[in-house]
Amino acid sequence: MICSFSHQIRSLEEYVSYRATNKPELEAQRAYENALSAGRGEFNVSGFCVACGKVVPLKVDLQWGDGVRPNWRERLQCACGLNNRIRAALDFLGELVGKTQNPALYATEQVTPLFAQLHSRHLAITGSEYLRDGTQRGVANANGIRHEDITDLTFATGSFDAVLSFDVLEHVPDYRAAFREIARVLKPRGHLLSSFPFDASLAKTLVRASIGADGSVVHHLPPEYHGDPVDNSGCLCFQVFGWDVLDEMQRAGFSEAHTVFYWSLDRGYLGPNQLLIIGQR
Ligand SMILES: [Zn+2]
Predict the structure, then answer these.
(1) How far is the CA of 44 from the centre of ligand 1 (A)?
(2) How many A from CA of 219 to the centre of ligand 1?
(3) Where are the domains of the chain?
(4) pLDDT tens for residues 112-163?
(5) What pTM did the predictor assign?
């Protein structure tokens, strides 16, 4: 087990039971984090960065925080550019494909520090962005950036050992089509390793916006925009996922889907409810 604290959870009921069973440990984690950050705007925590392969200072500040507490998920940033959630994702990727020779990987990102890191270790990786510059699907633009639509991928069925998709699916209104396409392009037994806004208290996915019959965006809640590396205007968040996303993944062609909740002092994976979503074809 790569983390000192890592739990596979498959439903709201299992989550409630996990919270109750591990209450003292979870409270100790929060107390540790609060003591670490109390009254400090910016500081470093020592931790092992899996990308750098050594213990490094991990920077914490109040960027994207609530003004008092750090946003642990997005901070704890190594000098290599990778933050808490991305370092952890690399760690879990090692568990999923570590025994596969030259794994074929697809990442739904290409202009990020994570892709650069993955490309340096896995030459058989393809990355793409959702471009809005007229580039055709499956083709790279003048800057070498490939365009793909995650709901209609150009890859052959059974192409990849793993698909990596981090904080993308909340921006895809037809996320069910995206899951079907990801399952399709995975080899049998291949994995989706993913993160997206996930509220562990929700049985059902919260739809913030959807596409109406006339093709325009319908807002059900005040619009929320997230940063987009290829579009400065940002990207609308269509949904915050709940536990039913695991059922949706199975309906889309995954044989199994679960979340993994993790926390590690040694690796600087701090913060409440740090989790990844993993599906197996
Ligand atoms: Zn690093």
Answers:
(1) 13
(2) 39
(3) 85-280
(4) 989 999 999 888 899 999 999 999 999 999 999 999 999 999 999 999 999 9
(5) 0.93
